[in-house]
Every structure is written in structure tokens, then in C-alpha cells.
Amino acid sequence: MTVTLLTESVVQALVCPADRQHWAVLDTLFCGLYVDVQRSGRMAYRLRYRARGRTRYLTLGDARIMTLEEARTEAREALRKVRVGMDPRAVLLPGAGPTIEAFFTEYYLPYVQTYKRSWKTDETLLRLHVLTCFGPRGMGELNGADIARLVGAMQTRGYAPATINRVLAILGYGYRLALRWKIQGISDNPVRYIRCLKEDNRIERYLNQKQISRLLISVRQSDNPCLADIVSFLLYTGARKSEVLNARWQDIDWTHQHWRIPHTKAGRIRHVPLSTGALTLLAQRQVTYPSQDNWIFTNPATGKPFVTVYYSWRKARKQAGLPDLRLHDLRHSFASFLVNAGRSLYEVQILLGHANARTTSRYAHLSPERLREAVDVIPSLQ
To answer: Which CATH superfamily hosts domain 92-201?
Structure first.
């Protein structure tokens, strides 16, 4: 962030530094007014102000089109509205409803925060893609062609189909809420005219016994004293990385031999049965670290759970000759082991905590040996 006296010549000469995505240049003459310079070359006048006890931002317009004097005039008018208790972002445009930025920051995000655990992801995707493209425009102005251009722009920048579809889902849900709430100026959902992109997100990576052996040797040599147990527990339980890193001793039921996960991706409490190997690992940790009565895998440097084990994991997987292996692939391997051992997809679904059987079906990778056994049941035709 840089502070300087803005002039037309200064604004038009601004270029975002190569090591940044955004660069904010504040005006010394008008408090709160700044130019948001993006690496892509886009520039926008924005206003930072306080309303209802929070810092808020208002996009005034494209700095390549709007003059500096026009930006200062609009900023001055916006602050007048703030002084009388109005939020300038929520002002309705003639016949076009609230601006995209006003609706999604004033209505959508506060609403989804009440129930959606991934609302921060929504906020990030909206800020990076939707607000930078449509922020100052009215909700009622957009049509299917506008949304199609957004999709095309994201494809050009190399975003994955899954990311683009997530943006479309958030934008479409916002319009459905606006229609449900009867927001003035909104009469249609332009996202419904756009087809989602085809996603090929099938997970193909899973470990065989030889690869597991190499991986376990490698993680046991790691400088991170907990990495080997974390990796082993992931393989024993098929749990998600975040669930294992935040596991607590109080959630281990030794009597019934299961692990209670209080905070899952689906937002429901889940109980994971513990195998003999998992119970042995936990018992050994209790003996080795008797003073750790809170988190199971405590970071010795902080006394709290690991935020990440990425760097030690990256080193270990390279040493094992598995440079592209993700921690989530251990969950996939767990499911594949069960399927190859003859367990049903329903059992795998319950153990992984999937609400939808279609999600579990991606993990049904049968080994070539089991496939050969399957075809051998066909009788000889000679």
C-alpha cells in the first residue's frame, strides 16, 4: 500500500509490481480514496470507509474511464450517505436492483455465514472473480451473455472447470436468494442460462503395498516426530487431514473402539471404528507422550495441533519416490484397500462419512487381480 497525491498523470502511469496481485495507492487529498491496480492491468477507484462499526469498501469505477475528479465527487457523495446512516453500496440503481457488490457483501455473505462452514471460500471466490468483474453493476443488469463472458475469461486465465463451476454455483445461488427475498429490480437469474463445465475430477492415485512400505520408511526418518504416526493414522482410518490433525484424546472411546469426530466436512458428528493397528498406534502415543492429554498429534514447538505438515510431508514423499502423492490420496488408498478386500461400497461410504453414494463410487478402484478373479466366474464356453 502506497500513499501519494493522486493526479490524472500519476494514476494513468501506475503499474502493479510484478510480485503482487493487487497494489493499493491511496490519495493524500481525499481520505479513503485509492486506486486498486491489478497485475492484469485493470485499475479501479475504490473508497474505504466505516459503516456500522466495520470497515467497508466501495468500487467507484474503472480508473481507465472515470476521471480522478469524478471519482472524488462520487466518493464525496458516498460519504454524505454514510453520515446519515446509509450504506452507499446498498443504494438501488434505477431499475437494476442493488449492485453486485452490495448484494453479495450486505445480504449474501451475512446470510451464508449463519450456516455454511465454507463461507470463507465463497467470500474469496466472489472477491477474486465476481466483484472484480461485475462489482459496480446492478444485479438486474446482468444477462446470460455477461455470465458467459465471465466463464470465458476464467478459462482464458487457466482456472479449472471445478473452480469455474463453484463460482457459477455461488452466483446462481445468490440470484435465487434475491428472487426468494423479492429484492427490488431482480426478475431473473441469468446464471440459469449457462451450463456448468464438465469436470474430470476422478481420483486415480492410490498406493499398493510396496509403495506403502517405501512411504512408511521415509516418514519414520522425518525430522517431524509426529509425521509417521499422522500418516499411519490417515491410512488406518481413511479420515481427512484436518480431522486427524485436530483429533483429541477425549474423542477416543477405548471401550467401544471408535473415534468420535465432532466437526466433519458435512457438519455432522461421525464415529469411526478403530482397527487393531490404529488402537496400537494410539496406545503407543499415550505411553510415549503421557503429558499430552489434549490433542493426539501435538506440535512440540507450539503445544497445539499442527496447522500443516506440508514441508515435512513433501520431503518424505520425494524420498519415497512418490513426489506427487497428496495426503488426501491416503484416504483414497484406504477406500481402495476396502473395495479390493471385498467390502461393499455401502460399507466404504459409511466409513468415509459420505452423504452421497455417488461420491463413494469414485473410490471403487479394483486391482487387476480382483478383476481377473471376477471374470473367472464365467463358465467355459467350449
So the answer is: Tyrosine recombinase, N-terminal domain (1.10.150.130)
Is the distance from CB of 232 to CB of 309 less than 8 angstroms? no
Helix (H) or strand (E) holding 23: strand 22-27
Q: Which residue has the cell 496481485?
A: 21
The pTM for the full model equals 0.56
- Alpha-carbon distance of 374 to 370, in angstroms, equals 6
Spatial contact of 146 and 167, defined as CB atoms under 8 Å apart? no
Q: Tally Cβ neighbours within 10 Å of residue 311.
A: 10
Q: Look up residue 294 and give its three cell numbers.
A: 489434549
From 244, 305, 306, select the one nearest 274 (Cα to Cα).
244
∠ CA 82-44-126, nearest 5°, is 80
Architecture of domain 1-89: 2-Layer Sandwich (3.30)
pLDDT digits over 143-176, tens only? 999 999 999 999 999 998 989 999 999 999 999 9
DSSP string, 192-208: GGSPPPP----------
- Side chain identity at 215, as an amino acid letter? L
Q: What is the CATH number of domain 209-373?
A: 1.10.443.10
